[in-house]
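Tokenise the fold.
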Amino acid sequence: MSGYQHILIAVDLTQDSETVARRGQELAERFDAKLSLLHVVEFIPVDPAGEALLPPPVDVDGELIKGARQRLSALCDSLGLRTATRRVEVGNIKAEILRVVTEEQADLLVLGSHGRHGLALLMGSTEKSLVHKAPCDVLAVRLN
């Protein structure tokens, strides 16, 4: 194997995203690989009682996606990733990441991994699911 050809970095656009993106950036430089960054907007409205509601006819494409695109661009700019592909998708986080990995033919997925405790550990996580279902290698960057 000559190394990775296309690295996809999935970020949640929190403060940890820079750590995850830097790790993917380091690998892309080492392997001279194409680099793509992805953020998935998962829009699930919740009523005050904590019940998920069916999405009302709102302009999800509007403010949520616009804000995500701006934050993703700011992250890329701060890391000097001028040529990296930037994608913002809407949908289920796991499903969209898997779809984009396949569509982009990425051979490495880089994502953040938070330590789980209590019920979160028992119920599984996005990271765990992606490690088992992704059609490529997965690097889970441990975050505090």
The longest strand covers residues 34-41. Residues 117-123 have pLDDT under 50 and may be disordered.
